[in-house]
Specification:
With 227 residues, this protein is of the alpha+beta class. The protein has helices at 12-23, 67-77, 88-103, 106-111, 127-148, 162-176, 183-193, 196-207, 213-222; strands at 2-5, 29-32, 55-57, 63-65.
Length: 227
């Protein structure tokens, strides 16, 4: 399989399938392509039918685009790896929050674009962004308390799953924009930051030389400058 992904500093959607496939030891060839951060790009159409990344190529170059579609394909193709929790209730909840992350949180995404190189002082978020942050905290807390802690493992549903990959970009957003967390949410953030593959992605992001000024300048202006 071949996975086309965007710049590791900025491409939140690309992080998800990369992290998922690496964690579950699903072999693939990685292709990093540039992104502008402004939606579909005609330059991507040679390897992605919708002009966006990530895009996974499987047998005979068949394309699967969109993070959640890629995750569902992998879960079906490798059932023995349990990309979703084994328990049916935990699995249903994991799918629910993965879909919610996939389709929601527009205010948080818009205000805090993934930008791993940034270490910002932080600022008081808007009412709309605050609501998104509170919902993320609620999701993380509920999952860890209801499902994760019963297994003695540190992720949302005990062992690492699609749900953790779906929320991985939010980890970097909260870290970069210095969002204050407490309790289960803080513990989960620290767990994810300590994941060796999250650290590997970070090191690759820090080594990139591409800079998207419309992201960087807005972040510096709106979130108190660098720490």
């Amino acid at each position: 399989m071949e996975l086309y992904i965007g710049n590791k500093n900025y491409s939140s959607w690309s992080l998800r399938p990369w992290l998922l496939m690496k964690h579950f030891d699903i072999p693939f060839t990685e292709h990093v392509v540039g992104v502008a951060g402004r939606g579909a790009n005609d330059l991507h159409h040679g390897y992605s039918k919708n002009g966006l990344v990530p895009c996974l190529h499987i047998e005979n170059g068949f394309q699967i685009w969109d993070t959640l579609a890629i995750a569902e394909y992998l879960a079906e193709t490798y059932p023995e790896k349990h990309l979703y929790p084994i328990d049916k209730f935990a699995r249903a909840r994991a799918r629910s929050i993965s879909a919610e992350m996939h389709s929601g949180f527009a205010n948080l995404r818009g205000a805090m674009g993934m930008n791993i190189k940034m270490r910002l002082k932080g600022a008081e978020p808007s009412v709309e962004v605050t609501k998104d942050i509170q919902r993320v905290v609620e999701i993380w807390t509920d999952a860890r308390c209801e499902f994760g802690q019963t297994t003695g493992k540190p992720y949302l549903f005990g062992g690492f799953s699609v749900a953790d990959a779906m929320f991985a970009p939010v980890i970097w957003r909260f870290f970069s924009y210095n969002v204050a967390l407490e309790g289960e949410a803080k513990a989960y953030l620290e767990t994810m930051l300590a994941h060796p593959l999250m650290q590997a992605w970070e090191q690759s992001a820090l080594a990139e030389t591409v800079a998207l000024a419309h992201y960087d300048d807005a972040a510096l202006a709106n979130y108190g400058g660098l720490r």
